[in-house]
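Example for tutorial group B:
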């Protein structure tokens, strides 16, 4: 008997550009009240329905059947004419057809765009590397394009020989290149209380993964002769107006921390710290100090403003946890995800990302029934320590309601928790370190929505 022909479903993209400029400006200047929140929700749903209708009408031009597909039968212009010359774009850009895939600011999240976040569009990316132009951005006081010829890194404190390095000095030292994820400690912060945002870009997009190149911090600390008897920590300081400062324990500083100038084969982008940033694998993004200008070696934590007022975990009993900086094991399905729409029953590839600040991802399980049954997903290689890991799993959608979840386990045996398990320990007043299992609900209509299921 012939094998039945496999039917492939289609995913309509989430509306990536669903708000008009006027509403964004209004929210940014006047804040987000209940009425504007309603506007946001309705605009997103309307845009998502319009995308689905557009697709059903054939705007994405599915192949014609019957009399033959004109896209095959007629030779297109580009097969009959001379193309553009080499170096027409000396620094290449993505296709104009991909222009909608952008990092985006969540309207109303912050009062000032210079102290804000632009989220990575995880729903539109493949593999594990984030294109440099889509790497998320989080600035406390805006970004600058700093002239590297005048940039300096000073190392002082408990060292025998305090030193000032130029970029040229640093780039002549022994370097390493390593692939690591960076996740802001506040990623998924909006979801502590309840469902808050419409798509994976806003729920998980303070997350990127790149290959970073630079000199290990241990090489610089040795070069300055750090005091092996008394040194316990280092303080990293940025050159922007926010004077971002973070304490890093010495054992970590000597382990895998990099003073980096390279990202994905080129110099860092200005938004991401050009010409120099700290890469602190597995640790929350705030410690990855950008525009790095100073490292001070000390004997105890500094409790700076970014450690004593911000970036602390509010606990249910009113106390705060300080210096909880490791990004615990977490995962998220990026397709299908909220705002997308499934057209028709049949085969769907469920794909997503998993990561752990403690090492490698060992396994990812996927459920399509809200966590009752789990199947183990395929991990795509490479599976690297403290890097994003891509997972895929086949799914036959029968057209019924479904709740998609992924659950990652790292090589320490730690299992990503459900949101109610996390809340039982951490309460709901926290901002940081929400690594709960994410649920996406697929309705019989094919609409995918952000929900909380446990
Ligand atoms: N470093 C400096 N100097 N100034 C900053 O505002 N933001 C921090 C960190 N380093 C910041 C900084 C925060 S909160 C995060 S999450 C990461 O940088 C974001 O890095 P990215 O903008 O490259 O994604």
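The residue assignment follows.
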């Amino acid at each position: 008997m012939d094998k039945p022909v496999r039917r492939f479903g289609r995913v309509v993209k989430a509306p990536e550009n669903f708000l008009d400029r006027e509403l964004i400006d209004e929210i940014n200047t006047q804040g987000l009240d209940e009425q504007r929140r309603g506007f946001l929700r309705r605009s997103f749903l309307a845009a998502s329905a319009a995308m689905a209708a557009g697709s059903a009408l054939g705007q994405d031009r599915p192949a014609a059947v019957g009399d033959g597909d004109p896209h095959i039968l007629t030779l297109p212009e580009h097969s009959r004419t001379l193309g553009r010359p080499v170096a027409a774009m000396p620094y290449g850009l993505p296709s104009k057809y991909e222009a909608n895939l952008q990092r985006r600011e969540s309207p109303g999240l912050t009062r000032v765009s210079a102290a804000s976040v632009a989220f990575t569009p995880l729903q539109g990316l493949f593999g594990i590397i984030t294109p440099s132009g889509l790497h998320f951005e989080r600035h406390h006081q805006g970004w600058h394009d700093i002239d590297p010829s005048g940039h300096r890194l000073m190392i002082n404190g408990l060292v025998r020989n305090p030193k000032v390095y130029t970029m040229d000095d640093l780039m002549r030292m022994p370097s390493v290149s390593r692939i690591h994820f960076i996740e802001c400690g506040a990623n998924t912060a909006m979801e502590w209380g309840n469902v808050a945002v419409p798509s994976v870009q806003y729920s998980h997009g303070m997350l990127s993964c790149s290959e970073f190149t630079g000199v290990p911090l241990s090489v610089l600390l040795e070069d300055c002769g750090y005091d092996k008897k008394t040194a316990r920590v280092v303080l990293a300081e940025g050159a922007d107006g926010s004077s971002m400062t973070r304490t890093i324990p010495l054992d970590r500083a000597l382990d895998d921390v990099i003073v980096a100038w390279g990202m994905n084969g080129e110099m860092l982008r200005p938004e991401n710290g050009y010409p120099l940033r700290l890469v602190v694998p597995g640790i929350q993004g705030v410690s990855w100090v950008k525009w790095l200008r100073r490292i001070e070696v000390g004997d105890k934590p500094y409790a700076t403003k970014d450690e004593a007022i911000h970036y602390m975990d509010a606990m249910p009993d009113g106390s705060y946890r300080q210096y909880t900086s490791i990004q615990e094991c977490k995962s998220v399905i990026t397709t299908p995800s909220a705002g997308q729409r499934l057209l028709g029953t049949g085969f769907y590839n469920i794909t997503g990302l998993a990561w752990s600040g403690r090492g490698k991802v060992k396994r990812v399980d996927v459920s399509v029934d809200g966590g009752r049954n789990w199947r183990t997903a395929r991990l795509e290689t490479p599976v690297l320590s403290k890097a994003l890991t891509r997972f895929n799993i086949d799914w036959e959608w029968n057209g019924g309601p479904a709740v998609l979840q992924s659950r990652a386990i790292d090589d320490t045996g730690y299992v990503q928790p459900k949101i109610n398990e996390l809340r039982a320990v951490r309460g709901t007043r926290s901002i940081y370190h929400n690594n709960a299992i994410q649920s996406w609900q697929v309705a019989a209509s094919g609409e995918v929505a952000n929900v909380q299921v446990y």
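The mean pLDDT is 92. Compare this with the pattern of hydrophobic and polar residues in the output above.
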